Amino acid sequence: MIDVPLSVLDLAPVQTGASPGEALAATTELARRTEALGYRRFWVAEHHNMPGIASSSPSVVIAHLAAATARMRVGSGGVMLPNHAPLVVAEQFGTLDALHPGRIDLGIGRAPGTDQATALALRRTAEGLSAESFPSELADLLRYFRGAGPGGITATPGRGAAPEIWLLGSSGYSAQVAAVLGVRFAFAHHISPNNTEAALALYRDNFRPSEHLERPHAMVAFSAICADTDERADALARPRDLAFLYLTSGRARALPTPEEAAAFQPTERESHFIAQRRAGQVMGSPETVRAQLEDLLRRTEADELMLNTLVYDIEDRARSFELIAKLAAA
Length: 330
Fold this sequence. Notes:
It is built from 12 helices and 9 strands. By secondary structure, it is α/β, with parallel strands linked by helices.
């Protein structure tokens, strides 16, 4: 039984032959549709120097999506803190919380979400880019929301703001930081499926109650494609498979068309890579997806689930979320 809240993680994928503006318009349409279907949250992820992703500025996109919807929570999955001074993040999300009180989530990640050269161009200094800097910068960010930050500086808007704080991760490190701080934790199962259960155990075993949260609260984010048949879901997944092949070979580009993906003949090594990536994903007909989701919930005991559906056409994306919403309502 799928009896936990469902949410959406979107990257504003840019199709081959389309513009970033068209990608963001499709993301906005998806937010409206998934709100109508009852999804709890809609998050966008920060990535840079990637031609196939248009969500490089989460705070800007969140403002637009929150204005285009009425009830669902909207947030970041996540803001990559190494790319930003904590004060900037506090002011941005303080502003969002002031504009849309009670609807803003601040999911924070410790990876830059890009290559090191781009990360340096964003931050303009190597200070703050190391993993060792993350805990102190995160602590500074939380101080800005509580009151005065380092040096007595006040974030305005920001001080007294109450975006819901989440720590994102794909390893045990982030799980333990989230536990020590007593904040919600979202695990990137779509990035590191073999580490999910161990990281969640670390989070729950080490959790300390805080002003943010009394007991541990974990969400699992994963890739999902649901279609009327297993064969149709497989076909919808092929542009995504090809996009990841291009990305890992240093040839990042816009999302390939279904026709290009269907014509692509992978080598044995590439086929192995695709199979490995698919191993931790949820994909197939409603019956297949139901069994996979129930197994994921059984293994992780997640409090919430968040779905990322990377397919070429907006109608297929929306249909996938519709079919999965029906599974949860059944």
